[in-house]
Every structure is written in C-alpha cells, then in structure tokens.
Amino acid sequence: MMKNLVVTDEALERIKRHLRPDKQIVLDFDDGVGPFSAIGNCNLEANYRLIFVNKDVDLPDFDEKVSSNIGDIHIKSELYANIQFEDQMEIRFDPKHFTMPLVSPTKILTDNIEVVDIDEPLQKEYSGTHDC
Fold first, then answer.
1. d(CA 125, CA 104)
2. What is the pTM of this model?
3. Among residues 4, 129, 130, 132, which one has the least CA distance to residue 66?
C-alpha cells in the first residue's frame, strides 16, 4: 500500500509559496542520513521536516514516494526510516499555537513540522536557515 499525505487547506496556505515547478518535496527527519541531516537526533519524532529542494538535486537516500495533494513527496525507504511514517498522514495548521502538526489516524508524529526551502546547490550537508 502506498503511503498518502494530505495537506489541509489551512496548512497549504502556509506552504504554498514554496510550491514551484522547479522544486521537489522531501519529508525527512533528522536521523543523520542524507544531505539534509547534519548530526542526527535520538528523538526522531520531534524533527520532521518538509523540505523543498531544486528538481535537479539527486536524492538517492529518498527512494520511496508518498502521494499527496501537493505532488509526490520523497521519503527514505529503509525499514528503520519507513517506520517513522504512517500509511495515512496529514499536515494541519494549528492557528492557536501557529504550528503545523504532522498526524496520522493513530498518533501525532510531530507537533510542528519544520518547513525548509533550499535554493542554493547542495553540498554534502545542508546547514542553512529555515522558516516554519
């Protein structure tokens, strides 16, 4: 079964400026693997990130796709990584706390997904700034 992610209309308002035809989307968490993880973190569920990166960036660590209402989203397929994601997920906007929780039907994966937009060419590791 292919994983699916829905971005609610309210969350879409928060991220729509990042949705461009020259970008691809990655759903990552800071586990120390791949060009977006500098150090890794033991508390994986607190570090989910929605990353918008140029289409020409090679993403060998992100070899599985999640379908979504904003386009395909790349994730890591390794078993240890894949268990961090549910088959059905949703990104919402919480106006009271001004956060974007990532949730599934059974749990909250993170209270606030970090949104990162990378325009510069990637080096071995990304160490730039983000917005959320």
1. 29
2. 0.81
3. 4
- The beta strand positions in 11-124, using DSSP E, are 23-29, 48-54, 64-68, 73-75, 88-91, 102-103, 108-110, 114-118
In terms of Cβ atoms closer than 10 Å to its own Cβ (0-12, 13-18, 19+), residue 58 is exposed
Q: What is the pLDDT of residues 14-60, one digit of tens each?
A: 999 999 999 999 998 766 667 676 554 444 445 789 999 999 999 99
How many Cβ atoms are within 10 Å of 66's Cβ, its own excluded? Answer: 18
* Start-to-end C-alpha separation, the chain: 30
